[in-house]
Every structure is written in C-alpha cells, then in structure tokens.
Amino acid sequence: MTSSRRVREMIRVDAVVIGAGFAGVYAVHKLRDEVGLQVRGIEAAETVGGVWHWNRYPGARCDVHSTSYSYSFSDELTQSWEWTEAYAPQPEIKAYLNHAADCLDVRKEFAFNTRVTSVVWEDDEQRWTVSTDRGDTYSAQFVVGAQGNLSVAKDPTEFVGLDNFQGEKYFTSSWPAEEVDFSGKRVCLVGTGSTGTQIAEVIAKTAGHLTIMQRTANFAVPGLNHTVEPEQRTWNAQNAAALRARDRLNFYGVTIGEDLAPLPSAAGMPDDERQALFDTNWPAGGDAFLQIIADLVVNEESNKHVSDYVRDRIRDRVNDPEVAELLCPTDHPILSKRIVLENGYYDIFNQDNVSLVSVKNNPIERYTERGLRLADGTAHEFDMIVMATGFDSITGPVKALGLRGRNGVALDDVWADGPVTYVGSAIPGFPNFFLIVGPTGPAAFYNNPVSIEDFVDHTASAIKSTLDSGCGVIEATEDAARRWYAIASGLFDNSLLPYANSWYRGVNVPGKKPATYILLASGVLWRAYAAAIKASGMGGFALDGVERSVPPVLKLGWAATRLFDEMLLQLAGETPPPLRELDIATYREMADGFTAAGGIAPRDLAVADTTYSGPGGDLPMRVFTPRGEAPKPVVMYLFGGGFVSGSVEAHDNLLRLMADELDVVVAAPQYRLAPENPFPAAPDDAYAALQWVAANIDSYGGDPERIVIAGESSGGNLAAVTALRARDEHGPALIGQALFEPAIDAEADTASRREYAEDWLMSAADAATCWSYYLGEDLKHAASPLASPLRASSLVGLPPAAVVTAECDILRDEGEQYAAALQQAGVPTTLVRMPGTVHGGLPFIEWLPEYRAAFTAISDLVARTGAPATEVLTEA
C-alpha cells in the first residue's frame, strides 16, 4: 500500500512504542538497551504516566498492593523507591513511573503531547508508517502497542442530553488537573464500579448531598488501606526479590500471606467449617479473602457460598435494610466482574447526605439542563454530575490507533467477530506489530506490571529472534491465533464469567461484539506458552513468509490448558523434573498432592475403610456407598500413577464424586507400588481385590452380580489385566471394564508416543522410567499379557469395554489399538477420544467437563447389562 502524503519529513527508526505508562517505559528501555534498537516512544500526555496520568480523579488508587504493583526487573529501581501506602494513590504511582523513566533515562526517547492517528503497513517497504496529530510521521520496522487496556473512555454520546446540562460535569477518565470543589453541592454520581466507589468515598465527605445512580450493584470488599510504616518499608526493600518471585507464582500475580494457602473449593464443606474459615480470613482484607478458595471462578456452588457471605457483610455495614439490599449484587457471581476494593464505601450510606437511586429497572432516560430524568418521569436536579462510566476496554485502545495491515486491511474488519490474537501479543495480517497484554492476554485477573514485563520480554525475544535469523518480518499465523483464541474462549466460556455483563466480554459498550477479550489463566501459564514458542524457534509465527509449526502446547484444548495451569501453580511455575532425577518418596508426595487438588467432593456418603488379603499380606480397601436403595451396581476402581505412585487417599475426592453422581458403590483397593514391589505384585493385588469385592461387597450395599472394573493410566492397565485373569481363571463375573487413558503396552511404538513425547503431565521419558521400575531395566516381562494386555493370545470372551483416551497423550494410540482389538474379538466396545485433552485429568473432573466421558462410560456399561455380544466401535 502507498502511504499518505507526508506533512513533515519521514523520521526513520527501528521501533515505535506507543504509550508511556508501565508498558511503554519498560518497552523503550528493553528494546533500546538490551536489543539495541533505535526507539521512539509516543505519548499523548505531557509526561510519563499512561493511564495513571489521566485517571487523576479524587480518591484514585490502585487495587493491588503497592509492593506488587511495580517493576521487578531492576533491583536498583526497587531499592530506590518506597511506597507510603499499602494501596498506592494515583499521584504516587505517577511519581513512581516518572522516577523509573528518569532512572532508566528513557524520557528523552519520547515525543510527548503527541497522539498517534494511524499505523499503516507499507507492503512494498515492509515497514510501518506511524502518523501523529502533530504532523510527525515515522517509518518503523517494528511497532509496539503499549497504550494500555483502560485508556479509551466510552463514547460520551451514549449519554443522551448530557451536553444540555448547565451545571458542572466531569468524566473520571479525563479529570481536570485543577482541584474540583464538592463542598455544599448537590452532586450526582453515575457509575458504581471501582472508580465510582473510590470517588464516592471522597465526594461524600464534603458534598451538600451525593446521589449515586446505580444500575448494577457490584461486589466490594474491604481494601484496608493504611500507611506503610518505616520499619515495614525497610522490610519490603530487604525482601523485595522474594516477594516479587512469589507474585509471579500466584494465580493473580499478587503475594498473599503465608498463612492464607488456598483451599481447592468451598463446595462440599460442612457449614460450620466453611463459616469458620470465612470468619477467620475476612479480617485480612478482601483481596486476600478472595484467594482462600481456588475455584471461585469455575465452581458455581463454591462461588455462591462466598457471594452469600460477602452479601451478609454488606448488610452488616448498612443500617437501612432496603438500601443494603439494593447494594447486594444478585445478578452475577462474585469475581465475574471486576472486584471492587472499598475503604468506607458502604459506611457512606449511613450518612444523611448520601442517597442511592437504583436505575436498573427505571433507567436514566436523558440528561436535562438541571439534572436528569428517569424513565418513569421522575426528575432529579443537581449542581454537578460526575460520570464514572468506564472504558471501551481491551480493544478500544488498539482500534483507536487506526491500524491497517497487509493490503490495507483495517483492524476493525479483522476483529469483526472477536479479537483474535496469538497469545494476546500478535495479530495475523499485521506483521512486526506487537501488543503488550493485548486481547486474550491475562489482562483482568493478573497483576498488570508483572504481565507487562512478561509481554515486553516476549516481544523483545521475538524481535531479536527475527533479526538474529537474518529475517526482517515476523507475523503470527492464522492457525496459531485461531488455536489460541479457541483456548481462551474455552477457558472463559467454561467459567462463571459469562454470567455477568462486563467488559470482560465487551458487553459494557453499546454495539460492541460480545466475545472473549481476556485470558482466564495465570501468568505462570502464559509464560509457559511464551517459553514453548521460543523453544520451538518462534513456533506459530512466519519469519519472512516461512511458517514455523505451532508448538505442541497449542494443540491442547481449554480443559487441558486449565489442568496445566493448575499443575504449574502447584509446582511453583516449573514443569516437573524428570522422574529419574527424583527420589521416589518426593515424586509420590508431588503426584499425590497434585491429584488431591481436584476439589472437595460430596460428603453425604457412607465411607468404610477395611482391608483385603493379597499375596503380600493385608492391604487397605476403601468403600464408598451412596445413600438410597440397595443393592447398587459396583465399580472397583484402580488408581493411576505409573505403577510407582498413587493412593486411594489422593483419589478420595474423585471416588466420592463417582459414587455420588453415578449412584454406584465404589470399592478402591490400595495395591503395592514399584520399585519396591515390582511386577507382578500390582496385578496380583488387583485380582485379589476383585475376589474380595465379589465375596464381600453385598455387605456394603453393592450387587456382586453387577461389577464394573475401572482404572486410569496404570490403573487402566491393571483393570484390563484383571479382566483377562477373571476370564482365564474363572474368577468373578464382570459386566464391564472401563479403561481411562490406559497404559496397554510397555514397548509400544506409536505416533502419539512420538508426537507428545514432551507432555508436561507424563513425558515419554517418565513413562519409560515407570515401566522400568515396574518391569525391570530390561523390561523382561513386557511380553506378558499381565503387563501388556494387547499381547494376550485372545481377547474373546472379555466383558464389554469402554475405552476413553486423551487426544494429546502419549498413551492415546495404544489405548485405541486395544479398543480396536477388543472389537475385532467380538467384545462390545466403545471408544471415546477426548479432544484437546492431556493425560491425568480425571481427578479434576469437577471443573474439566471433557473428562466426564469417563463417568459416562461407566454409566453406559452399567446400563447395558444384557446387551448383544457385538457392537460397532465408535469414536467421538
């Protein structure tokens, strides 16, 4: 495309960075001082500050602890600054950013009082033309959009008649630098989000009367802001590195107290225990309180308990019961909209000079010369109107740049159906353009400065990789971006966030397309994706038109991605070390801890701990019996763990849920583990356990004539082997075998073993280690059908089978080969492949619905008793 007429001589630079907030300051420093580029920064304001320059309304402050809401890349910068309040006010944040700009000596690289009007890709020159409102035009090889996600206010024309108002009117997003006097005035405040809450606390102190127009009640929790005493400041400085390291390993990117370790769920807890937990942690402040439960954004029951508790605390604070009820949110779960931290907000409604008007069902019809009129005709008169009505978030600031990519295509057209990006950083069709925490990046739930550093580092790495490879152009591929958007959308849609009308999905702006705008995942996960992209040679990008294959991680579905996020958070952001490098006790503790994190399952069950006699002596058996009529079908479940780890205790949540939801008696035996007890200890124990179940389960409400044997991974292997032994040794009759992600052949050589050899939850190397611990270093027993059931001489006469495999699992192909062999032998068999999933997700079935295919398989086997002896193999 040919560029437009130049107003002034073109200024040629390597990179243009748009914005001078947290992102812009760090990006200029990084690209100039570490990558070695000639950089020009462009900022609309007269100085450094970004959104913290413009958001200067009274009471404006950050809702993240000040020690966390700052840069971490420079110890010198950290040690040269002290925060005076727990939650920094706007003037202090702006001063900090100016201090950082001076320490890094980047102020001289910025053109201030300059607004970008267009960013256009020149196809012939393979460069960007960046035009500004001052007439300056830049030619840049790379452009970095660091303009922030909350920098474009909603269109004021949305507010009909506001221009007619003759009194004072202010928008919090563009507050004047001069002091505004509220004293004695009749003030109307429109908006009750974070901004509205903060400014209301200030206005209420001096206004003659403050009327708050509330369309939607929002959850606000105590901020407990306070002055940071000198001793604490010294401690913060001395421990800054450790604190920031902890920030990076937290789901929200914010350090919480050592004594506030989150529990998996509030669902299923006894009422008195849950109440005691909430009462104990509420005084720590709202941001810490909301981190004591891990599944608040994905578990409706868990969220309801917390939402109800917070509503009760609102009622405790507000004297007028009717006003209190208006302030209690009832149309969305807590955290499905941006949480508000308050410092006295609810208390102002006990003042005579503050009133609340609900406009949810009686909306503002129009603004008038003297105030406003509601839909029912009620008129309100004011001296001043303050509009705290929010932003065109996430995409608004990007679209405001006037972006045109290859062939002159406008960004508005590309994003017509949703903001598709590659990891929130790059857009197909817009080469050499990078966003800092862009759409579908961790922009809402994760601490912004930490995320900004991650994105700037990723951008610098991508640019350096391009230049070091001798290339001039890097561009995200359409395939990579679509895969990422599918992951982000899956995470969002399978949470509680869609229950709310919020900027998280774009519905706060009239006419804006509802879509996925944020990534509901931790920065730990995002960094893992960025690392995978780098390790694969910038996989998912095209360099000078040559596409690099997407890294395997992009093949995962949203459920597997959430599982991976959980694993990374538990393992302090690191993928597990190879099993060979761990002592077996450490590995078992790590594996059991991960498995047990799946949630709190139903407690209204009869649970009995007993023993069964195996070849090596008595072993534990746990039996779960649901309430209701007996006898019930029976599932004997064999846990997974590579034959070397696992326990009934770690799987307790899963087994309770299985018994409760499927209305079956679940018998779960502990079996001996390798390497202390190598093959054939485990299959011998499993068969002995089945014999015990058949002989004794009627005492626990189970029907010995309706037993399904089931297991996952190595447990799936043992279930298949036990079914073989029961047939060959004329043992207990089974009505079915349910094999989940089963390990079928110790020496399998399959495509899935090669494609997913580096799977985080079970790599090919770790699987080989497990087999060697189990069968011996030379795998001398691998040919035995009791180790590799696919090698059995015949599969005829086995009970009906359900085989469930995970798409992105090294064991996928051998499991599916076994299903095919069973079907060929005339065994009624169903096969379900769970798309986009990884190995080991079954314990997390409560919040990963894809894995419910396992429960469906069991219930289908129970229901099909007496079905014909053959069935067509099916795959889903």
Automatic annotation (TrEMBL):
Keywords, sorted A to Z: FAD, Flavoprotein, Monooxygenase, NADP, Oxidoreductase
Pfam family, one: FMO-like
GO molecular function: flavin adenine dinucleotide binding; hydrolase activity; N,N-dimethylaniline monooxygenase activity; NADP binding
Alpha/beta hydrolase fold-3 domain boundaries: 635-840
InterPro entries in the cross-refs: AB_hydrolase_3 (IPR013094), AB_hydrolase_fold (IPR029058), FAD-binding_Monooxygenases (IPR050775), FAD/NAD-bd_sf (IPR036188), Flavin_mOase-like (IPR020946)
Protein's UniProt keywords contain Oxidoreductase: yes
Cofactor: FAD
Family: Belongs to the FAD-binding monooxygenase family.
Name of the protein this chain belongs to: Esterase
